[in-house]
Amino acid sequence: MKYAIIPAFLALSLVAGCGNKAGAPAAGKDGGDVAVVNGKPISRATFDFYVQGVTGKPAAEATAEQKDQLLDNLIRGTLVAADAEKTGVAKNAETQSILELMRLNVLQQQVSQGFVKEHKATEEDLKKEYDTQVAAMSKTEYHARHILVATEVFAKKLIEQLDKGAKFEDLAKKESMDPSKDNGGDLGWFAPDRMVAPFSQAVAGLTKGSYTKTPVQTQYGWHVIRLEETRNIAPPPFDSVKDRLVQIVEGKKFKGYTDDLLKAAKVEKKL
Fold first, then answer.
1. C-alpha separations of 119 from 105, 112, 251 in Å
2. Which of 71, 118, 121, 165 has a 20 to 30 Å separation from 205 between CA atoms?
3. CATH classification at residue 159
4. For 148-185, what is each residue's pLDDT tens digit?
């Protein structure tokens, strides 16, 4: 099995999923480094972290073949990085920007992990967030068809044809630009938040079997929409969304922490 050289080492997924654990191969006479490349040491801690990030297990549990290949990756990466310093690549503006953004991401990730450990979501937090989410969610799903065309003028002509008795499905199959044309414009069941706002608002204003009397514009073009039917939807059980609620609550807590930092900071925007 081949492993990526440096991208896997630098990926934030490694930062999120790894911890420094002992158990690297015995390379390096002083026991603190696993290799020295042109005078540049590769520490055992770095190697252990890299091995766990790539293999998903502590370095002590990796095979000798895995360790040998991953150490070779780090040696090659060290040589490439040294060459980048020598040739000036490491100092160009794009490289410096990438490195700075990665530094910010890594530090934020680490701070976030520590913050979440100290501010776990309680059962009360989760139930409160659940009630908030349920209150905000739509209680209705819609089943609708639509015809998507490029111009308002053409959409109005289609409405005129519908007013004269043309069959919606037939017009959709013949004139619509949307993939749903093959099903007569049928979009199936959907909640309002799955559609762009102008489309959702138009659907919500229709009664069963009616269609929009004026074309509806979105970023995709001009729509003629017909509402087939509606149905009430029940919120998902608390236990089925508990894991997601944990993410939401802890995310909000961390955002509150960063909001406090922002309030206390002296920021001068220069855009």
1. 20, 10, 11
2. 165
3. 3.10.50.40
4. 999 999 999 999 999 999 999 999 999 999 999 999 99
